[in-house]
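thread: overnight batch results

M.L. [08:02]
morning all. the overnight job finished for the chain we discussed friday. pasting input first so we're all looking at the same thing
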Amino acid sequence: MNGIEMLWDNLDVFAAGLQNTLILFGVSSACSFMLACVIAFLLEGQDNLFRRLVRGALDLMRMLPFLIFLYLLYYGLPNLGISLDVWSAGFIALITYHGAYFAEILRAARTALPAGQAEAAYAHGFVNSNMYWRILLPQMVMRSGPLFGNQLVCLLKDTAFLSIITLMDLTAAASAVQAKYFVPLPPFIFVIALYWSITLLVEALLRRLGRRAQKRGLVHE
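M.L. [08:03]
and the structure it wrote out:
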């Protein structure tokens, strides 16, 4: 059996893996971004103990390798009486881990904004929450397009680790096919092409976002 026949006969396996990967990537991307927006809002204002604890939690999460974090959630929590199914563990791991990175990206973008904007907003009667969500956050997001793109690619690649906890994603599908036929090259090359296609789509969407930001004067070439 040649490689094309092998892939065709197992197309349903790859389709299931692709569907699960897209679900993991899409839901985790949206939720981790929303989590990051909330975290960045919590860091607004004067320095205090609470904000130091939040920054410490972000630093801890970014220091921890994703695979170890995933192991702790899926294999470590049962020792404390908390058991998670593979989907719950996968979503929690991806959302919290990459939410910390997205939050750091937003924090850096916040420090680059002119201080006069906040002062002008206060002068026009904006309270801290309205100023953040309506004035600051849109600019922070628009200015961080390339960094968000890199982090989204990292999130996509980290979905492959979920095959270790038996979640049937693209990588698990390729592993299943190569274990069946003992021919690793065609299934993994096919999966690489699918990952690459998703990455190109993400980059295209971010380029469109960047063009919109330029039209609104939020970023400059």
